[in-house]
Amino acid sequence: MKQLAVFFPGVGYTPEKPLLYHSRRVAESLGFDCLTIQFSGFPKKIKGDERKMRKAFDLALSQAKEQLKAADLAAYDEIAFLGKSIGAVAAAALAKEFRCSRLVLYTPLEPALSFPLPKTIVFTGANDPWVASGQIPALCAGKGVPCTVIPDANHSLEAGDPLQDLERLREIMIETKHFMEEGTHK
């Protein structure tokens, strides 16, 4: 069975940052081919500016769609999307169109949970300044989507203590691996 994991970074959260770097390594260890969507041209200082947020989403959506159409997705039996922040919104928006069968959302923005979703898990920070307090867990509960809330964590799922953040990252990657393994048929 041939599998593909597609990674959707955030505005400032590049593929080299911990959540995406390690989740890619997890996917590779499970035998997934990997594709990282490349975003460019996002407006600056978008937090709290609805117009700039919409522009960033439209850019992410169009750029991701273009790159996915250029990929040979028909060669894959299973496709997983893993998205961070605005990348999570684009991943959720495109999941149905591009045959995504499982979706991992790291610190999604609220619109990510407004789309029809395949099998999905969510990780969010209790102190994420990009979303309204409690909104992501409530939206997940309404859709029956498992949601792990990291206490005291920000939009990068970090709370300030580097060693504790590393342990939390390890736990997030273990959950990600278990979720990704559910679809593998080795």
Q: How would you sum up this structure, described in words?
A:
This protein has 186 residues and is of the alpha/beta class. The chain has one domain: Alpha/Beta hydrolase fold, catalytic domain (Rossmann fold), CATH 3.40.50. Helices cover 38% and strands 19% of the residues. It has five helices and six strands; from the N terminus they run βαβαβαββαβα. The chain has a six-stranded parallel sheet, with helices on both faces. Helix 2 packs across helix 3 (86-94). The longest helix has 21 residues, at 50-70. The chain is globular and about 40 Å long. The termini are close together. The mean pLDDT is 94.
Provide the descriptors you would attach to this structure in a database record.
5 helices, Rossmann fold, six-stranded parallel sheet, alpha/beta, about 190 residues
- Beta-strand residue fraction: 15-25%
How helical, in percent, are the residues?
A: 25-40%
Q: Total helix count?
A: 5
Secondary structure class reads alpha/beta
Strand and helix order? EHEHEHEEHEH
Give the averaged pLDDT, no decimals. 94
CATH topology description: Rossmann fold
Q: Which residues form runs of ≥5 with pLDDT under 50? A: none
The radius of gyration is 15 Å
Please outline the major beta sheet: 6 strands, parallel
SSE inventory with pairings:
Blueprint (H helix, E strand, L loop, with lengths): L2 E6 L9 H12 L3 E4 L13 H21 L7 E7 L1 H9 L5 E7 L12 E7 L9 H9 L3 E4 L11 H20 L5
Parallel strand pairs: 1-2, 1-3, 3-4, 4-5, 5-6
